[in-house]
Structure formats: C-alpha cells, structure tokens
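INFO  loader      accepted 1 record
INFO  loader      residues=477
INFO  predictor   begin
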Amino acid sequence: MDSVDSGGSSSVVSGSSMLTQALPFSSGNPRIEETRGVMHLYSNQLASFPYQLPVGRKSLVCVLGVPNHMTYADFCRFCGSFIQHMLEMRIVRNDEMEDRYIVLIRFDEQESTDGFYKHFNGQRFSSLEPETCDVFFIIDVQYTGSIEHAQTSLVNSTEQPTCPVCLERLDQETGGILTTICNHSFHCSCISKWTDSSCPVCRYCQQQPEKSICFVCQTSENLWMCVICGFVGCGRYKQGHAIMHWKETQHCYSLELETQRVWDYVGDNYVHRLIQSKTDGKLVELNVHCSHAVNGCGSCECSGDLGINEAMLSSKVEAIVNEYNELLSTQLESQKLYFESLLQEAKEDTEKEIAEAVDKAVTLKLQKLQAKLDKCTKEKKFLDDINENLLKNQEIWKAKIQELEERERRALRLKDDKIRELEEQLKDLMLHLEAGQAMEQLSISDEIKDGTVLKICGESSISNGTRLSKSNNRKKG
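INFO  predictor   done
INFO  writer      dumping tokens
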C-alpha cells in the first residue's frame, strides 16, 4: 500500500487496493424524457478508516441514499459553507431505492472535495432521523441512455444557457449549478430559495406517489380507477375487479391508469378522446394517426396549416370537455340519487335497529326489575315468618318469666315464714333458758339458806346445766 501526502494530514490508499463498483442511475421525467447512466465509484471506503482516501481520486463525489423528504433547498442548507466550492450538483435516482435519491457533486478543487468527504461522511442528515450521509468518490460517470441531452460529460449533459429563476447565464465561474431530477438546471442560490420538492419549471416532483395496486387482488397490472369514488381494480383480462365494482355500485366511468383514458361500461366504449403523447407529453386526439409518428403527434408539416389545426383542435378540445363534463354531471347526479337512496335505507335501518334495541333494552330492564321484585317479595315473606316466630317465642318466654318470678316469690315467702318461725322458736327457747336459770338460782339460794349442801346434788346440777347448754347450742345451730 502506497501513501502520499494530500492536504497535509490525510492518508491515501493505493488505487490498486481499492475495489470499484458500478452503480446504475437515471434522471428525467419518465413520461417525457429519461437519461440513464452508470457511475463507477470506490466501494471499500470503510467507516473504520474514514480518512483513508484513494489515490487518483477526482474532485467528483456522490452522496447516496438522500431521503426524498429532503428538498433541494434542504440539501443546500445541509452542505453549508461547502456550497460555495461546488461547481455543479446533479440529482439522479437509484431505481433500486424508490424513496432515496443520489446527488452527484463536482468541486472546484481537490482540497474542498476531501474536506467535504471528511466532514459529512457518516454524519446524520437530521438529529431526529437515523439516515446518514454516505459520501463516495467517483471514478467515472458514463451516460448510456439514447436521450438528446445524454452525453459523456456531467456538465455538458444538463447545461442550460440561462437560469429559469433569475434569467442569468448558468456559468460555473459565477456560481454553482444544480440540475434537478427532471434535468432542469438552476443556480444553487436560486434553487435554495425554492422550498417545494417540485421543479420550478415543470412541477415534476421528486417524491413520486406510490404505485397503485388493485384494492382486491393487490396486482399492479392493467389497473382501472373509478372516477366517481376512486376505487382501483384490475381489468377484465386479469380478474375483473373493476367491472365487478361497476356492477355493484353502478359507477360506469373508469380511468385506465396506464393510458389515462376513460371507459364507459354502459356504452361499452371510450368517452375520453384525448390522450397524452409519450413523445412530448402533449394532449392528442385518440385514433388520429400521423404519417410521421406512431402515436399521432398532430404537430408535423403534414397536418396542414398550424393555425387552422390549432383552432380546430381547440374547438374539439372544448367540445370534448363540455361533453365529458355533461356526462360526468349526469353520472354524478345519478350517483347523488343513488347515494341518497342508500342514505335513506341506512337511516331507516338505523331507526329500525334503534327501535329494536330500545325494545330489547326495555324488555331486559323489565325482566331485571321483575326478578328484583320477586327476590324482594321472597325476602319479605321470609322476614314476616321470622317476625311471627319471634312474636310466638316472645309470648312463650314472657310466660316462662312470669312463672319463674312467681316461683321466686313463693320461695321468698316460704323463706320469710321459716325465718319468722325460727325466730319465734329462738325467742321461746331464750325465754325457757332464762326461766330455767332463774329457777336454778332460786333453788340454789334456798339450799344455802337451809345449810345443807350436797356434793352429789351439786355435781348433778352441774351436769344438768352442761346438758342444757349443749341442747341450747344445738337448737341455735
């Protein structure tokens, strides 16, 4: 690997060790003109070696994978101060990536090219999106298309004498030139003020709509679009979903997407007699053939006086437009009546469904209320039975309480009577004891007076007194 000093600090890789890659591209409006070519670029510029630049590189680079939502003005602002060193920018498309486009850039000197590569390679276009700017050095650009503008030089292939915006000459020495994807050239300073993604000249938009497909079978061939409701279906030579749509909705006008012609299913013929010429994009009358053109240009010398032909064509176009508007208004009126009937049917069906729903809801509500009432009735009956049983038990318990109270009163009376009887007995006993003591004292005093004291009699009297005291104690107990 050989390395030389380029720009003071950048190392370069030998051209023999770098692999090249051929990348096809195209530009132009496909309906009018199209330019095709192939660019050869260095393909092994790895992200791990961002400062290894190839030997023999030119001041020509390309930015791959620019998202379609970035307009020309957005990309010019993204380039920043490097826009002053750009001699030419060209927008081309990669057929393999429909949502991306490629920008070919040629700088005024190699140092600016290397600085642009170092600064923007791997950098994100926006901090809110994951897309990154991939910069590649281009070895050569070759145009392979047989278009009038297609030549071997990037500048000469799209160079225009004046800028359509400022009407100044497109000179690279006074400012950079930007060529849009439809092959129209502008000054970079002029196009940077154009915020739309379309071309200021032909209004061709780089953000092409998605390819149409059949709404039923998803095929993309032989498609017809209903001009009334926009339904897209395949033709009768595929699965016939377009004609099935007509039979279901009575939308009799259908537009063939490929030729832009209108077919009337009721009359079984074409009602749109103007088609767009693929040669120059102009409207020409259907089935009018020119001897010098396959599609019938209607603008060559064999067509006679140009003024007369243009007047006749204008009158025919006006008549056809009036006829088409008449047919369309008639069809729209019939469709209005048809959809009004559908709306009336839908309204009646809705009212019927609402009435049925109300009846069903009322019936369901009544059933729930009836079930709740039955439940409450059962609970009331159960509570009444419990209340009746409780009242019966209350009478029984009242009788039992009265009986217990009467029994308690009788027991108290018996106890009181027994207490009074015992008190009387005790009183009698006390009187008897007192009388006995008094008699004994009298007898003792009489014996002392007589002077005779008998020991035996004393002992017997003592023993008798002891027995009396014991008997009295037993009665008290």
